[in-house]
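Same chain as my last thread, 77 residues:
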Amino acid sequence: MPYSDQLSPWVVYRLLPNFQRILLERFRKRNNAEDYARVLKQIQPQIELAILFEMESSPTPAAPRQARLNPNQSRKF
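reply #2:
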């Protein structure tokens, strides 16, 4: 995620059929995103919108691999 997007974490999406979405606008404050969505709803009442807080997704460390056991083999703790 670019730094400029990190500065505006509140995102307004237009929801489409088949779980698709279109990013409409980014905001720094939630109330600005809500106001924007409210105006869009007044202009187009049938539009479906979602306001989300998007954080940068950091890679998670890989989980340690466990040795595979045979079904007949017991595990010692």
